[in-house]
């Protein structure tokens, strides 16, 4: 079936996940964040219903679906006001990479737990001095007998405090060329030399952000995921789902804000008619809806290409989807807050905090400017400035 028309199964999945999301909602997630906790109850319920591992292989307890299904789960939870950020990291990035490239032992060890939600994994790529430039990653991995020794720093890594392990992107020396190439390693949380400190964020979220230090972290050879020579392929096998899931996260958030604004505009009366009857209020909300729907279409296309094994096509579409969704989300949130006026900034209506949260989709995991660079170079064939 064409990715532009949603299947009956996907529609049924949306309806079922929406029902779960409505049982929890924005108030639940806001309370958990305020109290410094984690959305454990929602995570456990989503896991029990098979939603967290819907993209992972059936033989390891997953649903046997793909990123298309997992992105629907995240979008619908977001539209209900309670998205689970760790879904982007644990089943989408780490689960996908291990399912595609991990050894049999790694699959047996990790995939059943990632699928049923009993184990989680964080993902560590970003560094203080590298930003979006993965070629400047300075975390190095060197051989020491049969072991690997990792040294370096990571920053803005989500959920390390609750994750059983972190999938760390390092660089190892290629024996043939002497050049550094990316490699992925599973680092259990309590490994000696693996330190973390929380980053004080303005953004109020249940998932905390961390700076990591790897000080001569010794790992067995079994910690290396997949083939030492296929690092770049493995890395992008994780980054494309990350972009698709970030797009789903943003679309869900935009839909949540828009629904609040539409409800308000239907009932808020200042003159004779509700304010939603006035085109200055109605048209921007309609525009926000159109932009969110267009972003969702590109997200579906990216997921369909990725699940079909077209990594190159998925790379372009995933970047475009993430760009479109980030822009649509920011505009939807902004217009929704504006529609409510002063009420849009009260805790009662729960929209004000989304002003900060919505910008995450423009910034992470890759900035909109870097996506424009990607499209201008890869798609349009324009020369590079760097």
Write the layout of secondary structure elements.
Blueprint: H1 8-34, H2 40-48, H3 67-79, H4 86-101, H5 104-116, E1 121-124, E2 140-144, E3 147-158, E4 165-173, E5 180-188, E6 194-198, E7 209-219, H6 231-267, H7 279-307, H8 311-340, H9 352-363, H10 368-379
Parallel strand pairs: 1-4, 2-4
Antiparallel strand pairs: 2-3, 3-7, 4-5, 6-7
Helix pairs in contact: 1-3, 3-6, 4-5, 4-6, 6-7, 6-8, 7-8, 8-9, 8-10
Structure, explained:
The chain has 386 residues and is of the alpha/beta class. Helices cover 51% and strands 14% of the residues. Strands 1, 2, 3, 4, 5, 6 and 7 form a seven-stranded mixed β-sheet that branches. Strand 4 (165-173) and strand 5 (180-188) form a beta hairpin. Helix 4 (86-101) runs antiparallel to helix 6 (231-267) and helix 8 runs antiparallel to helix 10 (368-379). The longest helix is centred in the middle third of the chain and has 37 residues, at 231-267.
For the structure shown, list the relevant keywords.
alpha/beta, 7 strands, seven-stranded mixed sheet, 386 residues, 10 helices
């Amino acid at each position: 079936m064409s990715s532009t028309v949603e299947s009956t199964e996907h529609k049924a999945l949306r309806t079922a996940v929406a029902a779960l999301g409505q049982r929890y909602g924005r108030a639940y997630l806001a309370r958990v964040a305020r109290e410094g906790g984690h959305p454990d109850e929602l995570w456990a319920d989503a896991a029990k219903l098979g939603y967290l591992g819907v993209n992972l292989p059936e033989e390891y307890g997953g649903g046997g679906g793909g990123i298309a299904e997992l992105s629907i789960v995240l979008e619908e939870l977001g539209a209900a006001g309670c998205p689970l950020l760790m879904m982007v990291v644990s089943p989408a990035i780490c689960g996908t990479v291990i399912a595609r490239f991990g050894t049999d032992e790694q699959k047996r060890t990790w995939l059943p737990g990632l699928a049923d939600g009993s184990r989680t994994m964080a993902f560590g790529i970003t560094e203080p001095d590298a930003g979006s430039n993965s070629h400047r990653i300075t975390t190095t991995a060197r051989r020491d007998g049969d072991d690997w020794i990792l040294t370096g720093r990571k920053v803005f890594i989500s959920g390390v405090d609750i994750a059983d392990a972190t999938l760390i992107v390092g660089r190892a020396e290629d024996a043939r060329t002497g050049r550094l190439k990316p490699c992925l390693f599973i680092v259990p949380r309590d490994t000696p030399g693996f330190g973390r400190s929380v980053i004080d964020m303005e953004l109020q979220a249940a998932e905390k952000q961390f700076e990591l230090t790897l000080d001569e972290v010794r790992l067995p050879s079994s910690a290396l995921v997949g083939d030492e020579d296929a690092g770049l392929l493995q890395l992008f096998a994780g980054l494309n789902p990350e972009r698709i899931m970030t797009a789903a996260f943003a679309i869900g958030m935009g839909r949540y804000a828009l629904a609040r604004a539409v409800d308000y505009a239907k009932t808020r009366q200042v003159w004779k008619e509700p304010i939603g009857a006035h085109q200055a209020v109605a048209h921007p909300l309609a525009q926000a809806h159109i932009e969110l729907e267009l972003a969702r279409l590109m997200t579906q296309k990216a997921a369909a290409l990725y699940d079909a094994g077209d990594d190159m096509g998925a790379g372009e579409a995933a970047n475009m989807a993430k760009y479109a969704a980030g822009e649509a989300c920011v505009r939807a949130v902004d217009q929704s807050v504006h529609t409510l006026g002063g009420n849009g900034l009260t805790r009662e209506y729960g929209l004000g905090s989304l002003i900060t949260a919505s910008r995450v989709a423009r910034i992470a995991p890759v900035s909109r400017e870097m996506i424009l660079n990607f499209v201008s170079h890869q798609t349009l064939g324009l020369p590079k400035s760097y």
